[in-house]
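tool_call: predict_structure(chain=1)
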Amino acid sequence: MTAPAALTSEWRAECREWARPWKLATLTIGVALLIAGSFVMPAPDWDIPISLIMAFFAYLTAAWSLRVLLERRWRAFPAMLLATWFTVDGCYALYWSLRDPAALALMRDVNWPASLALYGMCSLVWLYRGSLSEAASAARAWR
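tool_result:
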């Protein structure tokens, strides 16, 4: 399989995973928690739009990023680093540089570690490729 065909096949598989109901449900729960958190724990850089933006990019890239590491696909490593950086800090910096540069200057150093930790947790939750019933069957077989 040629490199472009392999890449196309890989992203086709990712698109199927994004449509899984259990993954969409966990994304919805996560977004709801982020939005609730923006009201409960007010911070100058925590609002609904950035919560939606960062959750969207995490949904698209987190599991793939972890898969690149676990499968030791070193050729994809630079793209994985770029996707991780953009999701964790790049889109945040772009958004706040346009909306409120003072909030960006104040909060950027403390935002990225928390965002990276959440990104890692999301990658673990969304890593499994398959339905929820397939995951349950695999867990029963593993015991």
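agent: Residues 101-126 form the longest helix (26 residues). Proceeding to next step.
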